[in-house]
Amino acid sequence: MTTDPERTPAQAPTRQHGTQAQLHAIVDAARERRAEDVVVLDLTDVSSTLDYFVICTATAGLQLNAVQENIRQKAQEAGLPRPSVEGPSERWLLLAFGGSIVVHIMTKDAREYYDLEGLWSDARTLDFPEAAH
Fold this sequence. Notes:
The protein has helices spanning 12-32, 62-77, 108-114, 116-119, and strands spanning 36-42, 52-57, 84-86, 92-97, 101-106, 124-126. The chain is α+β, with helices and mostly antiparallel strands. α1 (12-32) packs antiparallel against α2 (62-77).
């Protein structure tokens, strides 16, 4: 994350609030397409290059693509830039919104195998409760 010399300390909470709203939009978008076990990791204290990971589980193929498309749409509506996409594969798709938010959509097998939560166990997990229907 780069430091903006033009930004005053009073602007920092606004950026933080905007990021929280963007993360919430991504989490909600994943859940709308029935992604499971959606987790948000705050990497700001443990990484010099990454801010947040959003990790979720989807079945391969159609659901993985549906989750990805919905996240892209809702993230853009929330003010995030067009993501770069790694993959796609049948097991793992990665959407990178700059260095600030990286979304991992994984099958259950890939998620267990790569264990990103374990690799980043020093990161804080943020809570985004599901909206009551």
